[in-house]
Specification:
Order of helices and strands: EEEHHHEEHEEEEEEHHEEEHEEE
Largest sheet: 11 strands, mixed
Helix content: 10-25%
Oligomer: single chain
Distance between the termini: 32 Å
Number of helices: 7
Strand content: 25-35%
Low-confidence stretches: none
Structural class: alpha+beta
Radius of gyration: 19 Å
Number of strands: 17
Shape: globular
C-alpha cells in the first residue's frame, strides 16, 4: 500500500490521508465514512497501529472493488492536492553518511567500520512538490537522494534478523546540505539542518510492497539531467545492520525517519571548476524504484 499525507486546496486545509491506486489518490476519510466505519485514520495512527489499521484499509479497498459505486467518487483531483511531508512530527531524524561504496571512493574517504551518523530536525522537513527556499547563508547547496526507513514499532536492542518486524515502510528523501556551512566545523549539523532541507515523499510504501531492499535503483536529476545513478546493493551497511546498530544505542520510536545514505554523484565530489551548486529555479527529482519520484524546485 502507498500512503500519502495531503490537504485539498479547494475544500479544506485539514490534513488528509490518501491511498495511491491505479485509478488515482483515494481519500480515506470519504471511503471510511461511505462504508459506515466512522473511524478517523491518520498517518500517525496507521503507523502506530499498522497491523490492525492496514488490514482495515485493505478491507475498505476490497469493499470498494466489490461494490457498484464508482471509484471516482473517492478520487481527489490532482490539481487540488497539496502534498504534506509523509511524516510531520517524528521524534528523531537520523542520517547515515558515507554508506555507498562508490560515494566513499568519489570522496577519497575511508570505508567506515561502523555507520557514520548525524541528525536533522523537524524544521528541515518538506513535502513532495514543495518549493525549497534558499536561506541567506546558503552558498554551496548540494543534493542527496536517499532511501528513508519509517519506523513502525518501538525498537530497542533488536538483532539484525528481527529488524523487519519493526519497520513500517519506506519513502524517498532528498538530504540537502550547504557544504560551505557544513565545513565550518568538524560537526556537520549546521549545514544539514537549514529549514526545509529534508523533503520526504511523495508517499510511504508499506514494507510488504518491497521484497528486496538490496536492489533498488536510486537516481537524481537536476533540470532533467541525471547526476546520481546508484543502487542500494552498493550500500556498505544494509538496512538491518543500520537499524540493529541504532537500536543498541538508543530507542527508535514509531514515525522516526532513518536516511540511509546516498550514491555517488554529489556536487561536493566534483572538481572545483565543475561544482555547479544548486540555485534558484533548479528542479530536483529523486527517484527510487518501487516507491516513486520526489520533486522539489529551488526557490
Amino acid at each position: 500500500m502507498k500512503l500519502v499525507q495531503y490537504y485539498n486546496k479547494a475544500s479544506t486545509l485539514t490534513t488528509q490521508l490518501g491511498i495511491e491506486t491505479p485509478h488515482g489518490l483515494i481519500n480515506v476519510a470519504k471511503l471510511s465514512n461511505y462504508f459506515n466505519k466512522n473511524k478517523e485514520y491518520t498517518m500517525e495512527s496507521v503507523i502506530k497501529n499498522s497491523d490492525k489499521q492496514l488490514r482495515e484499509l485493505n478491507d475498505l479497498i476490497k469493499q470498494l472493488d466489490s461494490s457498484e459505486i464508482e471509484v471516482e467518487t473517492f478520487i481527489e483531483r490532482k490539481e487540488q492536492v497539496a502534498f504534506l511531508p509523509v511524516v510531520q512530527n517524528p521524534e528523531k531524524i537520523i542520517c547515515v553518511g558515507m554508506n555507498y561504496l562508490a560515494h566513499v571512493k568519489e570522496m577519497d574517504g575511508e570505508i567506515p567500520l561502523n555507520p557514520v551518523l548525524y541528525n536533522k530536525f523537524n524544521n528541515t522537513l518538506a513535502a513532495h512538490k514543495q518549493e525549497i527556499p534558499l536561506p541567506p547563508v546558503a552558498r554551496q547547496v548540494d543534493y542527496s537522494a536517499e532511501l528513508v526507513v519509517v519506523i513502525g514499532q518501538e525498537m530497542k536492542n533488536v538483532q539484525k534478523e528481527d529488524v523487519f518486524d519493526y519497520i513500517f515502510g519506506y519513502t524517498i528523501g532528498n538530504n540537502f546540505s550547504d557544504r560551505k556551512v557544513q565545513r565550518k566545523s568538524s560537526q556537520w549539523m549546521l549545514g544539514k539542518t537549514l529549514d526545509y532541507f529534508a523533503p520526504i515523499g511523495p508517499n510511504i510504501v508499506t514494507k510488504d510492497e518491497i521484497s528486496n531492499l538490496d536492489n533498488l535503483y536510486v537516481t537524481l536529476k537536476v533540470n532533467n539531467e541525471i547526476v546520481q545513478n546508484g543502487n542500494t546493493k552498493d550500500m556498505i551497511f544494509d538496512i538491518p545492520s543500520i537499524l540493529s546498530y541504532l537500536s543498541k544505542h538508543l530507542t527508535l520510536k514509531p514515525g522516526d525517519l532513518i536516511f540511509t545514505g546516498t550514491p555517488k554523484g554529489v556536487i561536493l565530489a566534483k572538481p572545483a571548476d565543475e561544482q555547479n551548486w544548486l540555485s534558484q529555479n533548479d528542479l530536483v527529482e529523486a527517484t527510487i524504484s518501487n516507491i516513486g519520484t520526489l520533486r522539489n524546485q529551488i526557490k
